[in-house]
């Protein structure tokens, strides 16, 4: 990761389709950015009502944001399972980009079996078309053809990521893919770390990356 003193725009925006998507995909990296003096903002497109009580899921998301010490958390208020790559979704993301002016944007990979993740990822790329750096993270339903090109060493921030994801107890109680995903978080970080030559890593595909030299 770039040294913070060489970065002129020290603001990060992370976008997720549902509560817990950001935590699963890039929370450990966001912790590092915060520790290096960046401002970190979150945008969650839905409140996850298709897989739980939306009020509960929103509260879990807010508790997680406190653990991660982010600077703001916003919701897009789009209906769960209906996040399409369209003008509405792009507008929601564009408004937040205009508000916080991020130097780096994180979004979900479009190589995913969940239509909300696909729609969010495509909308991030469209809304951030004037941005210099967009990195796309993996999640519970990411396809096997996800091929990361960027790795962030998260050995020392993984405990905070694990603490943040454990807040989502409404999902931990499920026996399906979400529950398996939480159990696999540590293993995935170690696997990506092995690929990158470090102890633990989060991995990203490049949506866009312009070097400022």
Average pLDDT, rounded to a whole number, is 93
Radius of gyration equals 16 Å
Poorly predicted runs of 5 or more residues: 1-5
Structural class: alpha/beta
**What is the approximate shape?**
globular
- CATH architecture, please? 3-Layer(aba) Sandwich
Largest sheet features: 7 strands, mixed
Q: What's this, in brief?
A:
The chain is an alpha/beta fold and 213 residues long. Helix content is 42%, strand content 18%. The chain has 7 helices and 7 strands; from the N terminus they run βαβαβαβαββαααβ.
Task: Please tell me about this protein's structure.
With 213 residues, the chain is an alpha/beta fold. The chain has one domain (9-209): 3-Layer(aba) Sandwich (Rossmann fold). It is built from seven helices and seven strands; from the N terminus they run βαβαβαβαββαααβ. It has helices spanning 21-35, 54-68, 87-100, 115-127, 158-165, 169-172, 177-196; strands at residues 11-16, 39-44, 72-75, 104-108, 133-137, 150-153, 201-209. A seven-stranded mixed beta sheet has the order 3-2-1-4-5-7-6, with helices on both faces. Helix 4 links the parallel strand 4 (104-108) and strand 5. The protein is globular. The model is unreliable at 1-5 (pLDDT under 50).
């Amino acid at each position: 990761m770039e040294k913070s003193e060489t970065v002129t725009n020290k603001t990060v925006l992370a976008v997720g389709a549902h509560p817990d998507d950001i935590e699963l995909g890039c929370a450990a990296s966001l912790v590092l950015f915060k520790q290096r003096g960046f401002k970190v903002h979150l945008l969650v497109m839905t409140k996850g009502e298709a897989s739980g009580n939306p009020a509960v899921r929103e509260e879990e998301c807010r508790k997680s944001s406190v653990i991660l010490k982010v600077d703001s958390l916003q919701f897009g208020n789009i209906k769960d399972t209906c996040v399409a790559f369209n003008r509405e979704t792009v507008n929601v993301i564009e408004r937040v980009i205009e508000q916080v002016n991020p130097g780096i944007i994180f979004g979900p990979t479009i190589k995913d079996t969940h239509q909300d993740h696909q729609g969010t990822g495509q909308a991030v790329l469209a809304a951030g078309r004037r941005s210099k750096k967009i990195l796309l993270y993996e999640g519970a339903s990411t396809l096997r053809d996800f091929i990361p090109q960027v790795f962030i060493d998260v050995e020392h921030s993984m405990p905070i990521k694990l603490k943040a994801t454990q807040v989502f107890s409404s999902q931990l109680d499920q026996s399906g893919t979400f529950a398996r995903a939480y159990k696999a978080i540590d293993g995935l970080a170690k696997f990506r770390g092995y690929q990158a030559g470090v102890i633990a890593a989060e991995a990203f595909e490049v949506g866009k990356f312009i070097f400022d030299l």
